[in-house]
Amino acid sequence: MRICTYVSVTQYVSHLQVDFDYGYTSSGNSNLNINIRSPYTVATEVSMANSRQGTAIIRWNPSNNDRQVRFDFGLKNVETPSMTDRAVNFKTTVSRRTVGFAVGYKITADRVTSNGQLHWDRDSQPDFAYDLDTRRTSGAYNGRLKVTSYLINTDSTFSHRVIGERHFVSEVVLDLAERLTMKSDLNLASPNAMTHTLTIQHPRMSRVCTSSLSMLHVHIVHRRLLRKLIVRFNLFTRWRLSAARHSLSADGRTDGHTI
């Protein structure tokens, strides 16, 4: 369906003339066009697709694309028993400069993905973008994070695995200019003590940095420290009692009693 209307209003008393027309189309994509010729020239076009992605353009001079502002926008909200998919975007272009954002995520039973973009320059490509993808399998989680920008660029991965009962191994690989690998091994299944090992590896490191922690060792250290404190407390108490006896004996106030 298409509707077109032409309107012209002239008021000679105040020398004001309004001249414009508009058209609306609802077949396929929805479009709205408004053209104002008097008292000033402005052309407006709004288009909305069935996918909820729209565009709005306002031109002060229809023959010159530099004198216009453009808006691109969209909204997505799909939810089913097995999947959730949401996204929103808004972008403005003025005098060949683009400012805007876009972000979205999708969740299923075994996968989560998310992506986003930021625009603030003349280039049509985003100045900042990220892409996150995580997957879940039997006893393991694996993911990938990619970031692209002027300040930082990385394509990193991470994983988390369950090895047996109460034994967890996690690994993060940060791929910046060079690969930095960090690994965590947490074992709670040992009947004697809990152990936790952290490992850091980098190409510029001559050796692999490893730090291990055993709760059995921590208990032993705490026990030794407690014994030292008890011994020092006993020595301090004996010294105070000895000093008190000496003071009372000097003043002659013991009266035959022993402290």
Q: What count of helical segments does DSSP give?
A: 1
Record field, number of beta strands = 16
The low-confidence parts are 9-13, 216-222
The helix fraction, in percent, is: 10-25%
The helix/strand class is mainly beta
Biggest sheet, spatial arrangement of strands: 1-2-3-4-5-6-7-8-9-10-11-12-13-14-15-16
What's the main sheet like?
A: 16 strands, antiparallel
> How much is the average pLDDT?
80
Give the CA-based shape. elongated
Distance between the termini: 110 Å
Strand content: over 45%
The string of secondary-structure elements, in order, is EEEEEEEEEEEEEEEEH
The gyration radius over C-alpha positions equals 37 Å
List the helices and strands and how they pair.
Layout: E1 2-11, E2 16-25, E3 30-38, E4 42-48, E5 53-59, E6 68-80, E7 83-94, E8 97-107, E9 111-121, E10 128-137, E11 140-149, E12 153-162, E13 167-175, E14 179-187, E15 195-201, E16 209-214, H1 215-251
Antiparallel strand pairs: 1-2, 2-3, 3-4, 4-5, 5-6, 6-7, 7-8, 8-9, 9-10, 10-11, 11-12, 12-13, 13-14, 14-15, 15-16
In words, what does this structure look like?
The protein has 259 residues and is mainly beta. It has a domain of 90 residues. The chain has one helix and 16 strands. A hairpin with a 6-residue loop joins strand 9 and strand 10. The protein starts with a strand and ends in an 8-residue tail after the last helix. About 5% of the residues have low confidence.
